[in-house]
């Protein structure tokens, strides 16, 4: 089943439900700050596990105590789809458990 791009309005509506996430060109993006480098690294590992479960992967950047993600759906022509928001919601759940802000 093909994944359809979301309209600008659909993207805006979904972003309103995910504080901290924003549209960055043709991707949705979010950065998190954690208490330490180890905490940020642990969060990256957990995000990678979720991405494998969903078979949907973001660009993921690890800083000293930060984690940043950008994501769109390459298989749909590198546009934002519901798959991106599913991943974002799962990452938000992880971030809360890691004490990220």
Keywords, please?
101 residues; alpha+beta; four-stranded antiparallel β-sheet
- The total beta strand count reads 4
Which regions are unreliable across 5 or more consecutive residues at pLDDT < 50?
A: none
Tally of individual helices: 3
Portion in beta strands: 15-25%
Strand arrangement across the biggest beta sheet? 1-2-4-3
- Using only C-alpha atoms, the radius of gyration works out to 13 Å
SSE order? HEEHEEH
Tertiary shape: globular
How far apart lie the N and C ends?
A: 35 Å
Describe this structure in words.
By secondary structure, this protein is α+β, with helices and mostly antiparallel strands. The protein is globular and about 40 Å long. The protein has three helices and four strands, in the order αββαββα. It has a four-stranded antiparallel beta sheet with strand order 1-2-4-3.
Please outline the helices and strands:
Elements: H1 8-16, E1 22-24, E2 27-33, H2 37-54, E3 59-62, E4 66-71, H3 82-98
Antiparallel strand pairs: 1-2, 2-4, 3-4
Helix pairs in contact: 2-3
Produce a short descriptive summary.
By secondary structure, the chain is an alpha+beta fold.
């Amino acid at each position: 089943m093909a994944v359809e791009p979301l309209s600008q309005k659909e993207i805006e509506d979904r972003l309103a439900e995910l504080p901290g996430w924003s549209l960055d060109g043709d991707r949705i993006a979010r950065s998190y700050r954690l208490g330490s480098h180890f905490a940020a690294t642990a969060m990256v590992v957990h995000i990678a596990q979720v991405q494998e479960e969903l078979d949907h992967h973001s660009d993921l950047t690890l800083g000293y105590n930060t984690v940043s993600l950008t994501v769109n759906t390459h298989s749909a022509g590198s546009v934002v789809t519901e798959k991106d928001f599913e991943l974002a919601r799962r990452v938000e759940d992880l971030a809360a458990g890691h004490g990220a802000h």
